[in-house]
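Table S2 (text version). Query chain:
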Amino acid sequence: MTEFSSQQTAISDRDRTRSRSKLIPGGNVLSRALDHLEEWLIATLITAATVLIFAAVLHRYGTGLSIDASKWATVHGYTFIAAFLKSIFLWLAAVDVSWAQELCIYMFIWMAKFGAAYGVRTGIHVGVDVLVNILPASSRRRVITFSLLCGALFTSIVAAFGAAFVGQMWQTSQQSNDLEAPMWIVYLAIPLGSGLMCFRFLQVAWSFYRTGELPHHDAAQIDGVEIAAEVDALHPAPVARSEVEKVKRSPLGLILILLPILIVAVCFAHAGGLVVLPQGVRVAIVFALLLSLMLTGMPISIALGLTVLSFMFTLTDVRTESVALKLFTGIESFEIMAIPFFILAGNFLTHGGVARRMIAFATAMVGHWYGGLALAAVLACALFAAISGSSPATVVAIGSVILPAMVAQGFPKRFGAGVITTSGSLGILIPPSIPMVLFAVSTNTSVGKLFIAGIVPGIALATMLGATTWYRAWRNDYPRLPKATLAERLNAFRNSIWGLLLIVIVIGGIYSGLFTPTEAAAVSAVYAFIVAVFIYKDLKLRDVPKVLLASANLSAMLLYIITNAVLFSFLMTYENVPHALAQWMIDQGFGWIGFLLVVNLLLLMAGNVMEPSSIILIMAPILFPVAVKLGIDPIHFGILMTVNMEVGLCHPPVGLTVGLNLYVASGIAKMGITELTIAVWPWLLTMLVFLGIVTYWPGLSLWLPTLLGMN
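Corresponding structure-token output:
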């Protein structure tokens, strides 16, 4: 992986073949046609939504600027120009785009539902497979089959709910507010997408039965990352039939299957009046069921969904109609749309040669200090984090370029891998940040405030990681580069300016009020496309559809988790769980100091087996009300959760389980997870120290929002 430019800027035919081989093979023409239709639909929807929001922003400011410019031309006597500008204003003012936001929301509902089905085929849905991976082959085969069939069961139930819901919409002739479109058409995506998802689960299960293999997906959602031989993939290893016959069954496998079945049986016993469960026990059973389902390795979104359905039918008196409506409208939010747009922008930039130019700029600025290229890697990660919003994307974009150069210059591979793995985690702290958007959606907090609040902690952590890098390089006398001249620095800055401007567009646009966070995300996606394709010309037009498809795939996976997590949160709130937890902690004498210590320990433990988006969507709605009741600032709490997610990205077994920073870095460095875990410890300890600082010094997070008058 020494020639990153060829890998990053052009997706080769080998990559295309390899990517296609990761999907479940279609056995006939009809199946292949369905595959292509699925891919075309979700890629088209994310493209159309991005262009539509960008056009709406242009329309808003074009209208205002044209009339202002017309008035200026009139005052200065430019009559012809004034008349021309006024005609533009009148034309723009006559165009009604009030429906654009509503249409985009509905397009994303369709993209999420069909993209979730595509995600089953590509193996992108994340799960907790720590225990599944240690099972012998025969037991592993049965547990995986059980989890796939559970996915089919859940999606078939949702499809039935969706069909009934669409029928109600048909009978009531309900229409949308702005488009005045029949709502049954909007929600038709629910039964169709869920039905297709059920088919995909059954298709994967059948393929697994025949071949013992599951679909695999690139953990970073970016082509060009080769997987080290020692590293397991996102799913358990293939299980051949002959292997099944040779190995004995494990009692653990049987327990993993029977435990959720027994818990559901207890729930139905309560519903049938055979046993009476008090509220506290019912809540405990819900969490036990969720944990037991996740431990089978099934997608976290499916585990959440099955838990919600079990709770809804057996343990609560909440109206089914209310739950069904929440299931269908869980992602009907304009703020959530920022997530796919930021993912799309990050993918365009990763493929578009921006990272290489940022590394050149960082090297020109700090390459002459102790650590040289290593310090440049920290600075480049911080800069790329400010435009990508993704930690794994930052690791692969920067690491693929700079790690081979570090090794060639004489740095130990462990040293370079440790720097890249931990510095890449800045991708979710320095705004824009996808986990921050998820936290804001889960807790009804301001996305803009969270972004501004993340700037100072992000710079502080980058400085601490840089200091750790400098000290270890100074102590071991690692190589340094010649000091760049002023002309070289200016040239490097000029080459990277187009990427750096995106920071100004996102943060400046949100703070100044020019854009909402979602609009800023859409504008950044269009801007990144223009930079990658037409300015840097490192991304070919023929490769754009694959970037769109990868972005839609990852977005749909996150949106599907959000849908079920919102429903889970709704039921927990209905049962008064957050309030009861807050009251219990106050009765036990917990203050904000003790509570935050417990939160850190809980989140760090969760980070061992789950990826950040799932943790935030499950934990934030439960912990957030407790934090507010204890007087903890919501923005400070959001930054604290984000820093915990950063630490979780850099320690095992999450790197092996769901393939985040450790997994990606191990593929780049060609190192096993165990060796890489040892390599990251000096920087990981630095991150833990920083976690303590950001936990008990709220001013670090709140200083800038307060200074800017946002608190």
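Notes on Table S2: Residues 177 and 449 are 29 Å apart (CA to CA). Confidence is low (pLDDT under 50) at residues 1-22, 219-247, 654-659.
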